[in-house]
Amino acid sequence: MRHWYTLILGALALGAAGCGDSTDPDADPLPDNAATAVGITVRDNVEASFDAFFPARLLQPLTTGLADAPCATASSPADTDGDGVPDDATYTFTAPPCRYTGVRGFSLDVVGQIRVVDPAPEAAGFGAVVDVTNLRFSLTTEKNDRNYSVTRNGRMTLGGSTTGLELSSEMQVLRTFTGLSDAAVENVWTASFTPETTLQINQPLTSGALALAGSVNWSRGDENFDLTLATVTPLHYNAACEDTGQRFDEGELAVTGTFGETPGTVRIVWRDCGRDPDIDFVAEE
Fold it and tell me: In angstroms, rounded to a whole number, what is the distance separating the alpha carbons of residues 263 and 180?
């Protein structure tokens, strides 16, 4: 059970903690750095969603080290088929004890609820249904202008076999921005993972390729963008990337649509594990 707890908390927190502070918004041509804001929010949610492919993972929550004990316990310990996914368990997070330091330069408080259900509790497999309810990550530093929070509600559904996995995600995200209105974002997308070697139940992913497609509905202040997410080059997950929440060493996503009065594409390009991807905006000619 601790394996699955670590998976979900680590996945969502890493996505939150992957804030785009390394992306320089000075080159952003849109008002209020809208392209950069869209890019870092999509990037974070892609990286968070990716971890939901793990039916189990190493005990490294928030990439801070081994977990001797989770900060939240399952409402039910039953795991009939022993595949690491509980039959039906709810985890409620409060801070403390769900408080962490040194998470990519932030202190992190986690509150909210996750429910994990095994869709086939009597047959070991890769399937899982994860419902996220008001799961908020509050990240703070000594520099108040960097503080922000991410709140998620929605569902992720995982299925597949030893030769590949499929994930569907419908997630509503509320992301704060210092000095600007909060962004309300609805992500509806599907993602497929093709491993380079055969997958094993209740084991970390092998290296492989991730492809995503779907929609991103963005609302912030007077910004209302209906955008399309597409894979330009599959994201390569490198299983050898350790001690980092950013484990893609190549790949590109495109978020395309009309940003206010400007049609164009936000490009998100991963180049090395442990390094945040580059984000830029290309206006349509």
Answer: 22
Q: How far is CA 278 from CA 24, 134, 165, 194, 283, in A?
A: 9, 30, 27, 24, 16
Q: How many Cβ atoms are within 10 Å of 193's Cβ, its own excluded?
A: 22
pLDDT, one tens digit per residue, over 103-150 is 777 888 889 988 889 999 999 999 999 899 998 989 899 888 889 999
**Domain housing 151:** 2-283
| Domain total in the chain | 1
Which helix or strand (DSSP H or E) is residue 46 part of?
A: helix 34-50
What would the DSSP string read from start to end of 77-108? ---TT-SSS-SEEEEEE-TTTSEEEEETTEEE
How far is 187 from 185, CA to CA, in rounded Å?
6
What distance in Å separates the CA atoms of residue 168 and residue 157, rounded to the nearest whole number? Answer: 5
Closest CA to 167 of 81, 52, 55: 52
- Would you place residue 7 in the very low, low, confident or very high pLDDT band (cuts 50, 70, 90)? very low
- Look at the pTM and tell me if it is higher than 0.85: yes
**What letter would DSSP give residue 137?**
E
Q: Does residue 4 register a pLDDT over 80?
A: no
pLDDT value of residue 26 = 58
